[in-house]
Amino acid sequence: MTKVNNLVPARYVGHHPINLVAGLYFNVDGTRRTSLAVSTGDEMMMPEREILGQTYLFDPTGNAPPLDLGVGRRVLPEHVGLSDESLALLGYEFHVGRSDWVPITAQSAQAPAPIVEAEPLATPAPEPVVESPAMQVVRGG
User: Fold this and answer.
1) 4-21 pLDDT, tens per residue?
2) Which sequence spans correspond to the domains of the chain?
3) Is the pLDDT of residue 119 over 70?
4) 3-class DSSP state for residue 114?
5) Angle at CA 128, nearest 5°, toward 3 and 104?
6) Can you spell out the DSSP letters for 73-100?
7) What pLDDT was estimated at residue 130?
8) Is the Cβ–Cβ distance between 93 and 75 less than 8 Å?
9) Structure pTM?
10) Beta partners for 71?
């Protein structure tokens, strides 16, 4: 099974220049990057999970496969309003985005371009419903 991951515009805010691994990279205006070198302030399209983070829900008993709830911080409708401690006990695992990149809004950015990568988990993510910028609710599928 494959998963489509969107690219989002992001700005590198790390304190030291970095070099990307060999691959195909795009600027926020959709043009192909010609250099693998990235300096503080550089803007490019990055995988949304790396920038915005992601949420997984694991079965605390280990009897069911984990659920990939998608990009950002998400919860199932029946768990809305629970404390972070309660969510952790239910098996939620919230991953934050990279600290050396920040999402940006750019007039020149084109619509996020899908890329395809291998699906690490067997269960597809349910459809999300946005509750607030800090937390999103996921409907069961």
Assistant:
1) 569 999 999 999 999 999
2) 2-7+45-138
3) no
4) strand
5) 75
6) SEE-GGGTT--HHHHHHHTEEEEPPPTT
7) 40
8) no
9) 0.66
10) 54
Structure tokens at 139: 């409907």
Residue 120 tokens read as 């690490």
Q: What is the pLDDT of residues 25-65, one digit of tens each?
A: 999 999 999 999 999 999 999 999 999 999 999 998 989 99
> Which residue type is seen at 22?
A
Q: What pLDDT digit, counting tens, does each position of 68-81 carry?
A: 999 999 999 999 99
Q: Let me know how long the chain is.
A: 141
Decide: 69 and 138 in contact? Cβ < 8 Å.
yes
Long-range contacts of 58-67 (CB under 8 A, 24+ apart): 58/91, 58/92, 58/93, 59/91, 60/89, 60/90, 60/91, 65/121, 65/122, 65/123, 66/91, 66/121, 66/123, 67/121, 67/123, 67/125, 67/126
Q: Are 73 and 95 in contact (CB under 8 A)?
A: no
Distance between CA atoms of residues 78 and 83, nearest Å: 13
